[in-house]
Design a protein that fits this description.
The chain is an alpha/beta fold and 311 residues long. It has helices at 14-23, 35-43, 52-56, 69-77, 82-85, 100-112, 125-131, 142-147, 149-155, 167-195, 200-208, 215-226, 235-252, 257-274, 283-290; strands at 4-8, 27-31, 47-48, 61-64, 91-94, 116-119, 122-123, 134-139, 156-163. It has 15 helices and nine strands. The strands form two sheets. The protein has a six-stranded parallel β-sheet, with helices on both faces. Helix 1 (14-23) links the parallel strand 1 (4-8) and strand 2 (27-31). The two termini are 34 Å apart.
């Protein structure tokens, strides 16, 4: 018999991941504060749960994919939360991106309740979630990691156990630092090229074939050229993630001067009301600093539980 998975948080990333688990043969019960998301999972062969407890009851594996540290804590420890409903021995996989210290603290609480925790933030954005090719950095015990290998294989391609609880979140913070820096520099390059009247599509094509090539250029370059910032990963979430990495760097006594600068650019873009844009929308603040016409896209508002994504 297939294992039962409770999937909590069916947003931009969570819903396609849950559908991939259904396609892999798991029995998936989904919960989301916006019921329509759970119904969409049901239409794809899963089940819709009305509460977290209903989703978790009897589940072999419990998955969370929610926006921030307080959300994960509430889902885990709330009156109707995971700890109150999970069966002993269940594996809890948190695909969210949260603070490493919070991940370690919540993992300890889970173990005390007889639950096996894995912090497993993901990278690859909405396309990676849809295609089941996410990069997954996992923190937790070796045996627990091995026992969840089939779950990870259904949603990811590059799956690496990076250390004990909290290590996955630490590696994800480094990922978000690199991604934000790349997005910031790509935005500057686009504005620079446009200022000289260069064929920007051709320019990005040749840049992508050299050392400047990257997944960021590949996935975000055309969005910047088109000023099309429908969210695959919202700036508001990247702002949250840059807060995580800058705080963690300060705690470790590590200097991140370039990261600090791009964190301020992300913060400024969010402060201007553009937190609902894709993080490629960082281009808008670079335009403003350059004195060119601002080009903000549509702000996107969805239920917070449904908004977790991964860069």
């Amino acid at each position: 018999m297939s294992r039962t998975i409770a999937f909590i948080g069916l947003g931009i990333m969570g819903l396609p991941m849950a559908k991939n688990l259904v396609d892999a043969g798991f029995a998936v019960r989904g919960f989301n504060r916006t019921p329509a998301k759970a119904e969409e999972l049901a239409a794809a062969g899963g089940q819709a749960a009305g509460t977290i407890a209903e989703a978790v009851d009897g589940a072999d594996v419990i998955v969370t994919m929610v926006p921030d540290s307080p959300d994960v804590e509430a889902v885990l420890t709330g009156d109707d939360g995971i700890l109150s409903a999970a069966q002993p021995g269940a594996t809890w996989i948190d695909f969210s991106t949260i603070r490493p210290d919070v991940a370690k603290e919540l993992a300890a609480q889970a173990r005390e309740a007889g639950i096996r925790p894995l912090d497993a933030p993901v990278s690859g954005g909405e396309p990676g979630a849809i295609n089941g090719v996410l990069s997954i950095m996992v923190g937790g015990d070796d045996a627990d990691f091995e026992s969840a290998s089939d779950v990870f294989a259904a949603v990811g391609k590059t799956i690496v156990h990076v250390g004990p609880s909290g290590a996955g979140q630490t590696v994800k913070a480094a990922n978000q630092l690199i991604v934000a820096g790349n997005i910031g520099l790509l935005a500057e390059a686009v504005i620079f090229l446009e200022a000289y009247g260069v064929d920007t599509t051709a320019a990005l094509e040749v840049l992508g074939g050299g050392l400047a090539g990257s997944k960021v250029l590949e996935q975000k370059g055309q969005k910047m050229l088109d000023r099309e910032f429908a969210p695959g990963f919202r700036l508001a979430l990247h702002h949250k993630d840059m807060g995580i990495v800058t705080a963690a760097a300060r705690e470790a006594g590590v200097a991140i001067p370039l990261g600090a600068a791009v964190a301020q650019l992300v913060a400024a873009t969010v402060a201007q009301g553009n937190g609902g844009l894709d993080h490629s929308g960082l281009l808008t603040v670079i335009e403003q600093l350059s004195g060119t016409t601002a080009s903000a896209g549509e702000d996107s508002a969805e239920d917070d539980t449904a908004q977790e994504g991964a860069a």
